[in-house]
Amino acid sequence: MAIPPTYKYLPPHLADRLDGISVGVRLPLPGGTQGQHRSRHHGSSVEFADYRAYAPGDPIHRIDWSVYARSDRYLVRRFEDETRLRVHILIDTSESMSFKTSGPCSKLEHASYLAAGLMYILVKQGDTVGLNGFAEKLDGGFPSAGSYEGLRPMLRGLERLTAKGGGAVDRILHEFADTDRPRGLVVVISDFLQDAEAIVAGVRHLIHAGHQAMLLHVLDRAEMTLPFDGVVEINEMETGKRVIVEIDEFRSAYVREVQRHIEAMRSGCANAPAGYHLADTSIPVDQAIRSGMAWV
């Protein structure tokens, strides 16, 4: 089933460019339904396990036609060495995500394109995905879906997200890790404008709880290079604090600090271990997703 041309963050041209891209994980994850990822609960041989009801998007060749002839029911064969990957996408909606200068869209818009692209790829390859926004707390979100029909409300939900409020990435990660959600891959899309050590502690909590984690670090290039001149007023978006600075005197120290933070995030994730990818808003979404195929 084709995605209609009515979704802001998954226009047809983007969906076309995402065809052929797949998302996988380094380590086996627990699971119970069909997909393309190896499960830690089954052996290496391709052995028949059981049946489940056919769902839109399942490969037609998996239908057991002999069972259909006897029961008039569409049932899909499930094999023991395969499992459907469960993915939870958490997208930062704090006020700082509204920032935009050099890129074609704000950080929240870029994050929404990334989320939509990943959800489309995951559903297309037979996995399940759920979505939550967060600032200082998780929103109600959307339950996991494994079909294009189930993806539609999430794509609409992305269009309703607005950037407001303070950020609390570390607290959200701890909160999510403490829930009883099925274990899977947690994809966090944020600008991570908090202490790197605190965020990585939250990532480790996710992993200790049985999840895998992938962090997409969304930044506007101006945040990394500070390409301004003269005296400017800097507004801290989440606290409202305003500071007047002479950019030329401030730039070198600022750029060093931003790079230090990025490296702390990168190395902290590598040690956790978790996937990490810096997503510059000036880079096309399909290119960002394709170049990040080694995220997890």
Question: Do you know the CATH topology of the largest domain?
Answer: Rossmann fold
**What is the number of helices?**
9
**What is the CATH architecture term of the largest domain?**
3-Layer(aba) Sandwich
What strand order characterises the main sheet?
Answer: 5-4-3-6-7-10
Distance between the termini: 28 Å
Mean pLDDT: 83
CATH superfamily of the largest domain: von Willebrand factor, type A domain
Strand % is 15-25%
* CATH class identity of the largest domain: Alpha Beta
Count of domains: 2
The biggest beta sheet is recorded as: 6 strands, mixed
Compose a concise summary of this entry.
With 296 residues, the protein is an alpha/beta fold. The protein has helices at residues 12-18, 65-71, 107-124, 148-159, 169-177, 196-208, 221-225, 247-271, 285-291; strands at residues 48-53, 75-79, 86-92, 128-134, 142-145, 185-190, 212-219, 231-235, 242-246, 275-280. The longest helix is centred in the last third of the chain and has 25 residues, at 247-271.
